[in-house]
């Protein structure tokens, strides 16, 4: 099997990581593109003797730490606001802490693997993760709309949201209910399942909501690769079912991190 064939299944998830790290689909995808270009240009530099996914992320980390990939021309006109918010908050947060959080909580790497990717001793990774959670959550508070038709999952999400200090405005189980609740009390964040109770689509519900006002969205799906093809506008943030609580917390923190509507604690 060629190196390209080995790396192909991992690209959707690298895009997820890169987008969460940058807060932007175009900017995040640009770093992934630069990583692939570097691998093609110097395949002998690709780490050998380790899992291909680990090697792929290692190459990305090298690009992330050394390159200045500029994709501002491809960003939407309203992207300046989130970018400015992100820059202000980044000044208060250690970049290594955010990387440790995303690599372990969202991407599922072990602390040992994350330490290799970041280039730090393993003993420091857990401390970095906890630092990131405290720093990010302290800066963001939001009202959250949950669109989820499975009661147990909805209750779990509601508990996670409240434990993080946010307010749940409603739990909607259909597209119509989701739009109605969003318009009744405007949320600062939406957690949306894709398949809803009446066979309506959470994607359509989100589109309806976004046609009325801008709000960060985290999609929940058992098939993330269907949304991360790189061929169309896609969600910057998503989590995979079945999910870990730490994954949900990381996604919420990152989504709110780039949103100017969240108020400092």
Structure description:
It is a single chain. The chain has twelve helices and five strands. It has 265 residues and is α/β, with parallel strands linked by helices. The chain has a five-stranded parallel sheet with strand order 2-1-3-4-5, sandwiched between helices. It starts with a helix and ends in an 8-residue tail after the last helix.
Q: Helical stretch count?
A: 12
Q: Rounded to an integer, what's the Rg over CA atoms? A: 18 Å
Give the % helix. 40-55%
Main beta sheet: strand number and arrangement?
5 strands, parallel
Anisotropy-based shape: globular
Class derived from helix and strand content? alpha/beta
The sequence of SSEs as H and E is: HHHHHHHHEHEHEHEEH
**Order of strands, widest sheet:** 2-1-3-4-5
Whole-number mean pLDDT: 83
Tell me what portion of residues adopts beta-strand conformation.
5-15%
How many strand units?
Answer: 5
Ranges where pLDDT stays below 50 over 5 or more residues in a row are 71-80
Euclidean distance between termini CA atoms: 51 Å
């Amino acid at each position: 099997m060629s190196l390209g064939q080995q790396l192909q299944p991992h690209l959707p998830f690298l895009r997820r990581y890169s987008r969460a790290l940058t807060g932007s689909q175009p900017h995040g995808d640009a770093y992934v593109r630069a990583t692939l270009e570097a691998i093609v240009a110097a395949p002998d530099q690709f780490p050998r003797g380790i899992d291909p996914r680990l090697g792929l992320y290692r190459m990305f980390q090298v690009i992330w730490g050394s390159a200045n990939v500029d994709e501002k021309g491809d960003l939407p006109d309203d992207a300046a606001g989130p970018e400015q918010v992100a820059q202000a908050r980044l000044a208060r947060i250690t970049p290594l802490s955010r990387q440790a959080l995303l690599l372990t909580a969202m991407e599922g790497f072990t602390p040992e693997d994350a330490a290799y990717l970041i280039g730090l001793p393993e003993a420091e990774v857990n401390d970095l993760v906890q630092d990131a959670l405290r720093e990010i959550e302290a800066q963001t508070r939001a009202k959250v709309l949950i669109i989820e038709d499975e009661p147990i999952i909805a209750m779990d999400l509601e508990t996670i949201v409240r434990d993080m200090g946010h307010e749940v405005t409603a739990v909607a189980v259909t597209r119509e209910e989701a739009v109605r609740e969003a318009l009744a009390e405007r949320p600062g964040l939406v957690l949306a399942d894709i398949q809803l109770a009446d066979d309506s689509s959470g994607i359509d519900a989100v589109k309806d909501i976004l046609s009325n006002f801008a709000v960060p969205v985290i999609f929940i799906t058992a098939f993330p690769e269907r949304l991360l093809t790189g061929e169309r506008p896609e969600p910057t943030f998503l989590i995979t079912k079945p999910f870990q609580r730490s994954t949900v917390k990381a996604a919420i923190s990152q989504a709110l991190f780039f949103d100017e509507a969240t108020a400092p604690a």
